[in-house]
Specification:
alpha/beta; 12 helices; 12 strands; about 45% helix; globular
């Protein structure tokens, strides 16, 4: 198995990407990585970790960097020496490469993957699907979280199909419970888009539709996959992440406000540490671009080596368990007659 690591796109590049890749190849004996970025900087990190370039670790020099300020279409056209565009080109042209992990600019990555890699046959639009922690100790996927602001009922149905196959192959979730994000749980709630989608999902084979879901239930553990347009999904994910961070900050401030709270906190130190790790997004990997014809994982721009390692693990499981062929088969089985 060969996986490309875009080493220049994140806040902690290339250290986080290179170190995360090293952990990945040590965990998976059949995994080879191609580190794409500034060769001198990448070699510095490898030397510091005592890792040499060999049959399992190779480097492709690409010193350019695409930032969040770059317009995606301009970045694709003008920054061909960037680590992201070089990685996407390799993924397209080299049949031995199975996937890519990148912490670079989301818009440019989605645009480059859509234009250069293409979609699984029958997929109308690729969708980003991040993973959030559920209060029951499990996980919940959110599809879409930003790739498609405007959607149709058929697109949302495909998100449900692709997300279900993803959770099954990458996380071994049996019959993922699929919920449609809405303003109420009743069947008639929402606008025309949500009501039409509800009826489609009820009739779709290959998914376990659990009905509408209000945003406050996102982390309840009652659902495994949340289906929504990219605008709503992005707001949901960032609201959840922001709320968790602010609650942790307030908890810390309150603990240090009184001596008796500090004494109690000492007794609960282990529990606080466990809760912090549970809510740490770095431990849950990145957003997968479902519907692309190759495995593409978009890590957090601020991700550290733990986050990159989690992204590598995600990509490994999807490739090993043949996620893309399974998505293709499920999409073909549910394709509307007029599209066949």
């Amino acid at each position: 198995m060969k996986l490309i690591i875009d080493c220049m796109g994140g806040d902690n590049s290339p250290d986080a990407q290179v170190e995360g890749a090293i952990v990945g190849i040590r965990r998976h004996a059949d995994l080879n990585v191609v580190l794409v970025g500034d060769e001198k900087k990448i070699r510095t990190v490898l030397d510091r970790r005592g890792v040499g370039v060999d049959s399992r670790v190779s480097i492709v020099h690409a010193p350019g960097v695409i930032t969040g300020n770059d317009k995606p279409t301009d970045a694709i056209r003008l920054k061909k020496d960037s680590s992201m565009i070089k990685s996407i080109s390799m993924l397209r042209e080299d049949e031995s490469v199975d996937g890519i992990v990148s912490c670079g600019a989301t818009g440019s990555l989605v645009a480059a993957a859509t234009l250069r890699i293409g979609r699984i046959e029958g997929v109308r639009r690729p969708a980003l699907c991040p993973i959030l922690p559920a209060m029951t100790g499990g996980i919940v996927g959110v599809c879409d979280s930003g790739a498609n602001v405007e959607v149709t009922p058929e697109m949302l149905r495909q998100f449900a199909i692709m997300g279900s196959r993803y959770l099954e192959t990458a996380y071994r979730v049996r019959e993922p419970r699929v919920a449609l994000l809405n303003i109420g749980v009743e069947e008639e709630k929402g606008d025309d888009l949500r009501r039409e989608t509800y009826q489609l999902l009820k009739k779709t084979e290959g998914i376990k539709f659990a009905g509408n879901m209000e945003a406050r239930e996102a982390l309840s553990g009652n659902y495994d996959l949340i289906i929504c347009d990219g605008f709503s999904g992005n707001v949901l994910c960032k609201s959840v992440e922001g709320t968790a961070l602010e609650l942790l900050k307030k908890l810390k401030t309150d603990i240090y406000s009184k001596k008796k709270y500090q004494m109690g906190a000492l007794l609960m130190k282990k529990m606080f540490k466990e809760e912090k790790e549970f809510m740490n997004y770095q431990n849950y990997g990145g957003s997968v671009l479902l519907g692309s014809d190759k495995v593409i994982v978009k890590g957090h721009g601020s991700g550290d080596r733990v986050a990159v390692k989690a992204c590598v693990d995600q990509a490994y499981r999807m490739i090993r368990n043949n996620m893309i062929p399974k998505i293709g088969a499920s999409i073909a089985a549910c394709m509307p007659k007029e599209d066949k």
